[in-house]
Amino acid sequence: MRRILLGDHFMAIPPSQIADRNRRHPWVQRILPKGSLRGDPLIHNADQNQHHPNSDPLIRKLRKEYYTLRKRYIKAYDDLLDAERNPKTDLSKPENLEILIGALKFWNGKKLKNHAFCIMPNHIHWVFQVFEKDRNGEPVYLQDILYSVKRFSAGQINKLENREGRLWQKESFDTTIRDEKHLYYAIEYTLNNPVNAGFVDDWREWPGNWYEE
Length: 213
Description:
This protein is α+β, with helices and mostly antiparallel strands. The protein has five helices and six strands; from the N terminus they run ββααββαβααβ. The protein has a single domain (5-211), classed as Alpha-Beta Plaits, CATH 3.30.70.1290. It has helices spanning 57-83, 94-106, 142-161, 180-191, 193-196; strands spanning 5-9, 26-31, 112-119, 124-130, 175-176, 209-211. A six-stranded mixed sheet has the order 5-1-2-4-3-6, sandwiched between helices. The two termini are 19 Å apart.
């Protein structure tokens, strides 16, 4: 299958760090408002050489240790995000939800395929697959999609909140989905974010959750 992006924490990925290989891969993208906790920029390309054949036992050992530590780091980062109960801009309030859901669905079927997303009070988890080309046969770039979604949503939310300035952070955590099993767990993790944060008992109760049925 084409690799899918786990779009954890909507903090846009800097264009300089997006290679052509990311045009059509599924991703999970995290999107964070400006002023939220910031991630480790070294994580952006963590999966770049994940499938590169290498028979050196030391390299395999170091790579395994790296991903174990990375997983723990991201878990701790998520715990810190979930602990924040009063963000300056609450993304999950109904008026902002309507804007964000529309923005996240806008390119679906045109430049990407949505699998799931979760809009939390201070960040977004987004699982989607970028098409290789759009309906006009033009190449699709991940950074263009993120720029479009963030630019539109920031403008609308700023107007609604009577605020000015940048809403989203530039940084992001991104993860390339390896296979169907990984995709399943990525979607499960995304939808259960509000449960793990203690906002609801069942993920179906969270109004910011959406998944492809």
